[in-house]
Amino acid sequence: MAPAVLACHCRFFFSSRFSSFPRGDVVTTRRRPPVLPLASSPVNFAYSPPKQREGETENTIDNEKKITSVSNPLVKHCVKLRLRSSYRRSNDSVLIVGLTPILEICKFQREENQSFYIIEQLFVLEGTSIPEELNNISVNVVHVSANVLKKISGMQSIDSTKVIAIMKMPRGFCDLDKNGSDAMFHSLLPSPSRLLVLDGIQDPGNFGTLIRSARAFKWDGVFLLPGCCDPFNDKAVRAARGASFQLPVISGNWSQLNAFATKQKMKILAGHPANSGNNPKTSALLTREVVNKIASETLCLVLGSEGNGLSYEALEKAELISIPMEGLYESLNVSVAGGIFLFMLQPQNPRD
C-alpha cells in the first residue's frame, strides 16, 4: 500500500480554530605542535607556499606569518568557497564563519568519536588568542588583519567574528543527482523515524534555522528537493550553527524521495494553510489528538517556501496538515511554522 504523504507549505497553517553558508604583502601561517599532515583530499589552494615573497614577514623564532593583503591567493580561495557552490563541491571544502558553529562541529565530532571533520585552516584575527577549546586540535593557524577577515567573511562588522575555518565537507552530505547513489542514501538513513523534507526553501536564514531545529528535536536527517538553498551557503551554515554537519543531508528529487519513503514505509505529511483555496484537499489540524494517533508511525515532513508554497508533487503526494491559529493571520514564517511541526512531531523514543 503506498505510504500516505504529508506536505508542508510556508505560507503557514492557520485556522479560525485554536488548539492545545598572485600575491599578498604578507602571509601568516602558524603551525601549532603537534601538526599532522592532512589525511586526504588536500585543498587546491591557488598559491605557492612556502617561499617567502616580496612584502612577507616571518618570525623565525615562533615561525609565525600573517596575511595582511586581501589580494593574497589564500584569501581569494576563501572568498570563492564562500560565494560559489560549485567551487565548494570541487574542493570538497566549506568555509565556516564564526567561533560558535566551529565549536559546535568540533564538539559533535568528539562526542561521536569522529575524525573526518578536519579543520584544514584556521584564520584568527591578529591580536586574538586561539580559542581554548581548539588548543588540543592539530590545525594550521593563520593570523589575519581586520581587512582580510572582513574580506573572507563578507561582513563589514567583525566584532563578533574573530575566527574562521576551512573544513572538509561532511560525509553526511549526499547529492543523489551528481555523485550519490540509492545505496549511499540508505546507508546514511538506514532506519529513519523522522525525515525533514525542504521543498524549494531558498532563504538561507530560514533554511539554516530549520536544519538547526531538526537537530534540536532529534529528527534523523534532511532531504532537499530541487530549488533549495545550498546547505553550505555561509549564511545557511551560520543560521544552522553547525547542525548541517551533524545530520545527514541528502539532495535529490521527488522520485527518489518517494521510492525511499515507500521502502521505509514512511507517511509523508506537508504543512499547508487550512483555508488555502489552491488545493482541493482538506488539511488536518495539528492537534494533540492527531499527534498521538501518528506518534508510532515513521514520518516525512515537507515544508515549502513562503513565496511559492508547496510544489505540485507535494500537493499531490502528501497528506496536508495545518497549525491551528487564532485571529486573521494568513501565515507564519516557514522557520517558525517548521519549528512547531518539528517539535510536535518529534520522535517519542529518539535514538541516542
Number of helices: 11
Enumerate the spans where pLDDT stays under 50 for 5 or more consecutive residues: 4-64
Major β-sheet annotation: 8 strands, parallel
Main β-sheet, spatial strand arrangement: 7-10-9-8-13-11-14-12
Number of strands: 14
What class would the helix/strand composition place it in? alpha/beta
Q: Specify the helix fraction band.
A: 25-40%
Span from first to last CA? 31 Å
In the residues, how many domains can be counted? 2
| Overall CATH class of the largest domain | Alpha Beta
Could you name the CATH homologous superfamily of the largest domain? Answer: SPOUT methyltransferase, trefoil knot domain
Protein name: rRNA methyltransferase 3B
Pfam family, one: SpoU_methylase
Domain tRNA/rRNA methyltransferase SpoU type: 195-343
Keywords: Methyltransferase, Transferase
